[in-house]
Structure formats: C-alpha cells, structure tokens
Amino acid sequence: MPSLSITNVSLAEGNPPNTTNFVFTVSLSSSQGQTPVIVQFATADGSSAIPANNATVADNDYTPTSGTLTFNSGYAFANPLRSR
C-alpha cells in the first residue's frame, strides 16, 4: 500500500496585511497499479506541533483551505499545498 509524506516548513510568519506563504510538498511512495491515488486535505485550528503556537482562524493566523490532491499513475508528487 502506498504511503504519503509531507515536507516540514519553518518560516517566519507574516502579520496581516502582510502574509507568508508556506509551501508543503506531498509525495507518494509509489503509484504503481494505483490509478489514480486521490487524497483529501484540510487545515484545522490547533494542529501545531507546539501547543503554545496553535494557530486559529479567529486570530487571523492562517487562511483555511481544503481540497483534493490527485497522483496520476507513475507520478510521485502532486501540486504543492500552499497555506499562509
């Protein structure tokens, strides 16, 4: 069964009205025989690895987003995820 990995991102964040885009690259271990591999994603409040840094939409820390990544057969990378 294929597995996913997502790059870690560490950047100084911007404060409104200035923003910083965070780009997360998602890769698939193998798409052989899996046509296509479809993954749904969504951002969520309080998902920071460091509890004191938990971001919230109410605090204007990020723009909520969700969507679908599609890995076509033979491809290991999908379009990058972008979050501010």
Label the overall shape. Answer: elongated
In DSSP terms, counting alpha (H) and pi (I) runs of 4 or more, how many helices?
Answer: 0
Mean pLDDT, rounded to whole units? 75
- Please report which band the strand proportion falls in: under 5%, 5-15%, 15-25%, 25-35%, 35-45% or over 45%: 25-35%
- Low-confidence segments, given as residue ranges, are none
Q: How many discrete structural domains?
A: 1
Q: Find the count of extended strands (DSSP E, 2+ residues).
A: 6
Order of helices and strands: EEEEEE
Main sheet makeup? 2 strands, antiparallel
Find the structural class using helix and strand composition. mainly beta
What percentage of residues falls in helices of 4 or more residues?
A: under 10%
Sheet with most strands: strand arrangement: 1-3
Q: What is the CA-based Rg, rounded?
A: 15 Å
- Quote the distance from N terminus to C terminus: 32 Å
